[in-house]
Amino acid sequence: MQGKKARLEELARRIKACTRCSLYRNRRNAVPGEGNPDANVMFIGEAPGFNEDVQGRPFVGAAGKLLTGLIESIGLTRGDVYITNIVKCRPPGNRDPLKEEVEACKPYLIEQLGIIEPSIIVSLGRHSTRLFFQFANLEFKSIMRVRGSPRVLVINGVEYTLLPTLHPAAALYNPGLRSLLERDFMVLAQLLRKRRGDLTDWLS
User: Fold this and answer.
1) Cα separation of 130 and 91, whole Å?
2) CATH code assigned at 88
3) Of 1, 19, 100, 116, whose CA is between 20 and 30 Å from 10?
4) What is the mean pLDDT of residues 95-122?
């Protein structure tokens, strides 16, 4: 059986050749994701932006720099985690991804989860969080209502801990939100410390 790295590389080849939705027509590069195939934590954002489309890598612009700093603030590196988006190609003008675009990419995301098997999923922003709430048949109203509150969800029979938080880009547009992001990353740090213990007090 192929190892995780080989399986992710094969999946990345399929993503880069994908024509399931119209986004492929204008992309420079699809952005499958990158990081540790054995990561305990998987960060999942919305969609690639300009810099990501140019480089074919996730979170390499200003929002990516902030995300990297937040990851490092809790003693991890980008090499320790896995980073991707729910949509693998850049929407024109960085607009919100359309429902049909999210649906077209959803099988790739589910396959990534199945390969990496992270303990914790950090959903970055409302689009990513809404999708994971849909997986769990939970009602989603607002990222501000659910951010920073871990919960258990099951996808394809596998249990994950989901920690919703803001998209780093939101803190660039509104610097007052940065403290909320930092607070959520402290929750992530505590989840990691408690990962082998009893998480009952943290999960709802």
Assistant:
1) 18
2) 3.40.470.10
3) 100
4) 97
